[in-house]
Amino acid sequence: MTMTHRTILITGGNSGIGAALARALLALGNRVVITGRNPDRLAAVLADTPGLAGYALDVTDPAALADFPAQVLADHPQLDTLILNAGIMEAEDYTADPVSTDVADRTIATNLTAPIHMAAAFLPHLRSRPQAALITVSSGLAFVPKAANPVYSATKAAIHSWSQSLRHQLRDTSVAVHEIAPPLVATELTPGQSKVAAALPLQDFTDEVIAILSRDRIPDEVLVDRVGFQRRAEAEGRHAAAFAAING
Predict the structure, then answer these.
(1) Domain count for the chain
(2) How far, CA to CA in Å, does 3 sit from each of 49, 137, 155?
């Protein structure tokens, strides 16, 4: 499978990594459809990038999510690739009194529950396509967590595990399952993150991911070089050092 001349749906494609991948995949000759929770931001991305199609969608709204697949498939019956990118990252404080679970609830709903529901809704159609792909987006923090964002890190660890299980279950179908695990990238996933010196520039990240997705054989895990520090930490016996470096 190659990532050209495909019809691709990207959730959370109106900003950050999602928008960058949408533009890059469009440039490769794909038909690209994006979703965004913020209608104004979505409209701005669509206006700025002719050729993109898009839908306003809050992936945590069960009613909206229930109606969405039928609408998309009616408009784009050739859909064969789903990139589950939408996500949020917020800090939590478990030393507070009382401890609020508002952030945890929002994060689980957006980062874990919504991708599961989206995959469940689209997989019957994807299985009907001769070559299809379901691509999840986890994080380097799935492998070495950031203590200030415990539930975000946990949801990404869950996405990694879920991706492995989906890949195994779908091994005899036409649907390939891949996982993109970004390192710290210069986006506004968190306020000011795009200005952090240690963050990988978004264009560099996108170029490296697109190069991997353009291979004749796409690996199960789409890993840029920078994320190897986290992905291989435990296997290389340096998880504690990596955790200290991220949380120091």
Answers:
(1) 1
(2) 19, 16, 27
- CB atoms closer than 10 angstroms to residue 63: 8
- Note whether 239 and 27 are within 8 A (CB): no
CA-to-CA distance for 177 and 234, rounded, in angstroms? 23
* Residue 56 located in a structural domain: yes
Q: pLDDT tens across 184-210, in order?
A: 999 999 999 999 999 999 999 999 999
Q: Is residue 2 part of a domain?
A: no
Residue ranges making up the domain that contains 39: 7-247
Question: Quick one: DSSP state of residue 198?
Answer: T
Percent of the chain with pLDDT over 70: 100
> Averaged over 101-120, what is the pLDDT?
98
The terminus-to-terminus CA distance of the chain in angstroms comes to 42
Q: Is residue 44 part of a domain?
A: yes
Cβ neighbors of 101 (< 8 A, separation 6 or more) are none
- For residue 1, tell me if it sits in a domain: no
**Amino acid of residue 118:** M
Residue-wise DSSP of 92-146: --TTSSSPP-HHHHHHHIIIIIHHHHHHHHHHHHHHHSSSEEEEEE--GGGTS--
Q: What is the pLDDT of residues 124-179, one digit of tens each?
A: 999 999 999 999 999 999 999 999 999 999 999 999 999 999 999 999 999 999 99
User: CATH number of the domain that 72 lies in?
Assistant: 3.40.50.720
pTM here? 0.97
Active site residues: 152
